[in-house]
Amino acid sequence: MAESVKDKVAIVGMGCTKFGEHWDKSADDLIVDAAYEAFADAGIGPEDVQAAWVGTMFSGATGMTISKPLKLQYIPITRTENGCATGSEAVRNAAYAVAAGVYDVVLALGYEKLKDTGYSGLAIPSGGGLTDTAAGVQPTTTAPGMFAVMATRYFARYGLSPEEGKKMLGMISIKSHHNGTLNPKAHYQREINLEQVMNAPIIAWPLGLFDCCGVSDGAAAAILCRADLAHSFRPDPIRIKALQICVGGENRFRDDYDYTHVEEIYRSGMGAYQEAGITNPREEISMAEVHDCFSITEAIFMEDLQFSPRGRVKDDIDSGLFTLEGGLPVQPDGGLKCFGHPIGASGVRMLYEMYLQLQGRAGQRQLRDPQLGLTSNLGGEPPGCAISTIIVGR
To answer: Dihedral of the CA atoms 74, 11, 17, 359 (nearest 10)?
Structure first.
């Protein structure tokens, strides 16, 4: 492995807006709210930021999307985009610049204002941005449709009846909705039960309404600095232990892809574990935020990240391993299921929860003495994704 960034970069401030339907706010308003919470948390002002990275999919084409509302004039600002992993990509690029010694203090911010656009998540892919060859084989399907294929294939491969499989997925959503009731910044803050999940309208069988994350507006921000400077900002900085991204696509052209795992998740996770020095992720990772755009996605993540044995995630779901009281809580903040998915913001929002938990500031959902937190953010959809995995610790 190339030289690691482990313990070279610290997070000393973070901010996050409430996610939801912000009809009364502009994208600029959300950017300001998230950034200024992060500035206050780090004890700095915008004038102290030496460079910035902004992640957004649908807003603007340059770094001016944040230079104007934050008055960050004449400093380097880079706009990043990597599908749904866009927010994590902003953090990764900012962290590498600090680790390289180019800057001491930087800002990474992700945001999206989706509700005003009418974006539903159900649009047919256009193939835009792909090569002609790739566009020619791009499936004309929806995101729910692609992940529904993963669910049915998983049920078949591991011998789950439709009812058993639906209940397994339902328990994932029930757990996340419970966590969301404890989070004032979540879009959805209401408990659901298994009867509601099983009887909900079907979006793409077997995925029903409660198996799918919503569409939201939101923004989240992080202040990163050199690790040796971190204690000059706050007594409890969080250090980055690993940053890995894996981008594939080969499986789009294979006829033997099994649809029950995502190779990019596995490889990104294994790279992160190697960088962080982790040999037993199920035991060493204290908590995780993963890209639960659909309930089946979370189940697949649990196996690809080596939290559960292949084909056995149902056992861990049934045992409560991934609940707030379990041995490896997943989506302690409610996840995409309860925050929705303002695309550029989600990866940074995941990190915000790990940051609060590690500092003991997560309120009613605070976990007992977490040591290492993992986020894994999925861009695209199987077969072929961009996966960004980040591990942070005290």
So the answer is: -160
**Nearest by Cα to 377 from 262, 281, 283, 280:** 262
- Distance CA(61)–CA(77), nearest Å, equals 12
Q: List domains and CATH numbers for the chain.
A: 9-119+219-232 (3.40.47.10), 132-212+241-393 (3.40.47.10)
- Dmax (CA) for the chain in angstroms is 59
Is 213 considered catalytic here? no
pLDDT in the model for residue 128: 47
DSSP state of 151: H
> Structure tokens of 305?
């990240």
- Cβ atoms within 10 Å of 232's Cβ, excluding its own: 11
- Check if 341 is active-site: yes
Name the strand (E) or helix (H) holding 251: none
Considering 16, 84, 225, 293, which one is annotated as catalytic?
A: 84
Are the C-beta atoms of 64 and 358 separated by less than 8 Å? Answer: no
Distance CA 142, CA 139 (A): 9
Among residues 178, 293, 341, 385, the one annotated as catalytic is 341
Q: Is the pTM above the cut of 0.85?
A: yes
pLDDT score of 136: 52
**Distance between CA atoms of 313 and 163, rounded to whole angstroms?**
16
Q: DSSP letter at 103?
A: -
Residue 61 and residue 45: Cα distance in Å, rounded? 25
Q: Which residues on neighbouring strands pair with residue 53, listed in sequence order?
A: 78, 108
Where residue 381 falls among pLDDT bands split at 50, 70, 90? confident
Q: What is the pLDDT of residue 132?
A: 45
Distance CA 384, CA 156 (A): 21
Q: Taking a C-beta distance cutoff of 8 angstroms, is the pair 352, 220 a contact?
A: yes
Pairing of strands 105-113, 77-80: unpaired
Can you tell me the distance from the alpha carbon of 113 to that of 100, in angstroms, rounded to the nearest whole number? 32
Q: Which residues contact 378 (CB under 8 A, 6 or more apart)?
A: 84, 85, 262, 265, 290, 291, 293, 297, 301, 385, 386, 387
Give CA–CA dist 156/264, Å, rounded. 22
